[in-house]
Each structure stands twice: as C-alpha cells, then as structure tokens.
Design goal:
Elements lengths: L3 E19 L5 E20 L4 E4 L10 H13 L5 E6 L10 H16 L6 H11 L3 H6 L3 E4 L4 E4 L8 E4 L7 H12 L29 H8 L1 H12 L4 E4 L6 E4 L3 H12 L5 E4 L11 E2 L2
Parallel strand pairs: 3-4
Antiparallel strand pairs: 1-2, 1-11, 2-4, 2-5, 5-6, 7-9, 7-10, 8-9
Length: 294
C-alpha cells in the first residue's frame, strides 16, 4: 500500500516546427523547440482494492486513454500488479497541439515509478515512453529542449524568454494523424521537406522573434480552419511579439512583452474563446510539482 501521490502533467508550446523527412517506419522526422508552460493536468494515484480510472472529462474515460496504456505498459515491464485508483483532472485542451495526452502518459510513468521504485531505470522508462508516442519521452523530464528525430532526440537548451504567454484553444480539435495527412498534401506546393537546421541554427537565445521559424502545420491547417489564421492575426494586433500555431494544432498562442499586455489580450480573447489561458514558461516542466498527496 502506498497511500496517495500526485503528479503534474504540464503542457508545451512549439517555437517553430519543421518536417524534415519521412522515416522508413512511417513516422515523420521533425525539428522544433519545445517550451514547457505552467498549464497543467493533474494525476492522483491512490491505493485501492481494484483498478479504476476517473477523469473530469468523462468521454476520456476509455481504454484508449494514454494514461491507462502507460499504467499497463509499466506493469508489464516491471512485473507488478498493484491495484490503484487513478484520477485525471484535465485542464489542458485535448487534440490541441499542446501535448496534453503525451504529458499525461509521461506523468503516469513517473507516478508508477515512484510507487514501484528501483525496478525500472531511466532507459527503461524512455523506451516505454517512446512506444506510447513520439512526444512522451520529452515529458518525462520536460524543460526547454531542441527536439528532432521523431521527437525522441532531445537536446537541452537555454531558456530563450520568460515572457507571459496567452494560449487559445478555439473549440475545434485536430488529430495528429489528420494534421500530418493534410500537411503531406501541402508540402509539395512549398518545395517539399524542410532542411534540418540543427541545434545551433533553429532558435537562438537573444534572437529577434521575427526570425523564429514558423510552424509548417500552419500551411495546411490555416486553409481548412480559417479561425486559426484569424487568431494568429488577432494576436499580432493585440501586441504579441510572436504568435504561432502550437504543434499540429489547433491551439494558437501569443507571447507578450508585459503581463499587462498579456492580461488584456487574454481578457479580449477569453470573451469569445472560453479555453483561453494565461501562462508562463516553467523551466522544470512536468516534474516541477510532483508530490505526496496524503
């Protein structure tokens, strides 16, 4: 019996996202900078006589939820069957390009590893994470990372800014598979795959936000969902120094110089889009707030 523990699962936004190729295994090669933000879900694990899973969004209480897949993958690898109740409190919009599902899965692996310490090592957890999804390894530790490969090549980088960020989910979800399919159709019109820039050539500390690379998913999704283009334009009109689609969509975010500007933008946008969040980068990412809950 372990009582109760809690793990925070924090979101990320992307500073640029380029597709640099297609792998033999069917996955895409990508390049991006992941920025962890203090918009977080919460997972609470409690000892129980039988397994149960509860979520504040009931439609996510299915066997396909990555939290349950992560729990079962850990159990199989560790050879343990400790029964428990898991409660997932969702704040991060889903199908939004913020990594919420991947972060939840990584938080589950971290929680299971605390419940059953000294069984699986870091390499074991990384392998399980990658099997669950391309972004899951990142969320095991989070932090500022230059990301490449299919998402598993993670290079720590210096934090580039600490400005407030306004995140807006416009109420329409985009599945990752759908987004990649749409982008593949569009890439040929834009000259094919991007060139790999590498760690030193993607986003540099102190660089002008106007030089930061764009998210290539905008090429495809802005055509189909004009609200995303309109949101990016509105962020600029509200004074954002940088605005972009996050991940494969459909969240759009804006970075502001001051808290006052960010609060004003959040109030303006929040009057039309209820899932508007004012947040900041969090250097420690998903591990910033894991704790005992009992």
């Amino acid at each position: 019996m372990f009582g109760s523990i809690e793990e925070k699962a924090c979101a990320k936004v992307n500073l640029g996202l380029r597709i640099t190729g297609r792998r033999p295994d069917g996955f895409h090669e990508l390049e991006s900078v992941f920025v962890p933000v203090d918009l977080c879900d919460s997972l609470k694990f409690s000892s129980a006589d039988q397994d149960s899973f509860h979520c504040t969004i009931p439609e996510l209480e299915s066997a396909d939820n990555l939290v349950l897949k992560a729990r079962d993958a850990f159990r199989e690898a560790a050879g343990t069957r400790q029964t428990m109740e898991i409660r997932l409190e969702k704040t991060i919009p889903f199908a939004a390009g913020l990594g919420g599902g991947s972060s939840d899965a990584a938080a589950c692996l971290r929680g299971m590893n605390r419940i059953h310490p000294d069984i699986l090592g870091p390499k074991d957890l990384f392998r399980l994470a990658l099997e669950l999804g391309s972004d899951v390894p990142y969320f095991l530790e989070s932090g500022w990372r230059h990301v490449s490969g299919r998402g598993e090549v993670l290079q720590p980088i210096e934090a580039i800014f600490d400005n407030p960020i306004v995140v807006v989910w416009p109420g329409v979800g985009v599945s990752t598979g759908q987004a990649y399919a749409r982008l593949s159709e569009v890439l040929t019109r834009h000259g094919g795959y991007a060139t790999f820039a590498g760690f030193d050539g993607f986003v540099k500390p102190g660089s002008d936000p106007k030089t930061w690379p764009e998210n290539q998913f905008e090429w495809a999704l802005f055509e189909e969902l004009p609200v995303l283009r309109e949101l990016k334009q509105e962020f600029s009109s509200l004074g954002a120094i940088h605005a972009s689609l996050s991940g494969s969509g459909s969240t759009v975010f804006g970075i502001f110089d001051t808290d006052r500007q960010a609060r004003a933008a959040a109030e303006t946008l929040g009057s039309r889009y209820p899932r508007t969040h004012l947040c900041r980068p969090c250097p420690m990412g998903g591990q910033m707030a894991s704790r005992s809950a009992s």
